Amino acid sequence: MAVSTTTAPELTAEQVQRILVQPLEAASTFLAAVATAASVAESEDPQDRAFMATVQANAAASSGDHKQALDYARQALEYSAAISLRHDAVRWAWTIAADAALALGDETEVTRLVSALESHRPGHVPPVLRAERLRIRARILANKNDPAATEAFDAATEAFRDLGSPYHLAVGLLDSADHLLAIGNSTIAQQLAAEADTVADRLPAPCLTERARGFMTSPAAALASRTV
User: What pTM did the predictor assign?
Assistant: First the structure.
């Protein structure tokens, strides 16, 4: 399944739904199907290996196993020099790794991940990772109760709007809503969650729809589930 990294287009919305959103909804089934494809599972091609590791990272993340998600995402990222940051597997693996590190409270690892992106020239970092870096920075600030977190989340949300990826926008809106609720701004938080629900419903992305509606139904419970 190896493809040229110089000519391969970014994933379409349909491909994102089929390859990356669906594993979050039915991870075990999807992973089992991929694992049976011996040509991929046994391939030495770095693109195949990175893709497989990213799928496994998605599966682990969907089941709440943040440690395993981080481990698999790291494996995928090891191939970034060979296949470039623009490869779909690498772009998604970085996000999975950063979110998993935050969930584990591993500040050292998430800082390392951010620094690794910053070590590349801006033109070598794809727009989606530049936007994701803003979101992760905002989450780091929020974890430190830094007042600058609100502005950082605003910048990340604006970047996602400019990016034109509904899936990423919905995630950014929900992360911002979590933060605003935590600092007592429940009104704006609910508005962002409602927008995220609308965006997720159009994709569709049931995992994000569930998160958004859980937030709107019981904000405190939704926030607690994100901080465990």
Answer: 0.79
